[in-house]
Amino acid sequence: MLRRREGCIINISSLLGIKGGRGSAAYAASKAGVLGLTRALAAEMGGSGIRVNAIVPGYIETDMTRAMTDIARKEALNAIPLSRFGDASEIADAAVFLATNKYANNCVLNLDGGLSAV
């Protein structure tokens, strides 16, 4: 990337890196660190033509969310303004956008159905 003076790094963080949560201090701290790293590298690498962005997913429909208890799933869905979990393809769409938009640098894209707003 440095030789070509062009490239894109897309980091994946987590909503817990923004909001935190009970019982998740180490995970939340690591994901908040990803956001700090993203911002620092965006500033440092931009002059070399390398863009650095982050995607911040909320609840995404995966084996892990499918394994939630009915009560936990219902509580999570009730907290999300769009009343649904995201789909992995929606995360992929965001990654394609960030990878192809040549002006996207230092973007932190929340994909959480509005959960971080409440």
From TrEMBL:
Coiled-coil stretches noted in the UniProt entry, renumbered to this chain: none
GO biological process: fatty acid biosynthetic process
Domain of life: Eukaryota
Record bears the keyword Oxidoreductase: yes
Keywords: NADP, Oxidoreductase
Pfam families named among the record's database cross-references: adh_short_C2
Gene Ontology molecular function: oxidoreductase activity, acting on the CH-OH group of donors, NAD or NADP as acceptor; quinone binding
SUPFAM superfamilies, per the entry: NAD(P)-binding Rossmann-fold domains
Family, per entry: Belongs to the short-chain dehydrogenases/reductases (SDR) family.
Protein name (database record): 3-oxoacyl-[acyl-carrier-protein] reductase
Organism: Monilinia laxa (Brown rot fungus)
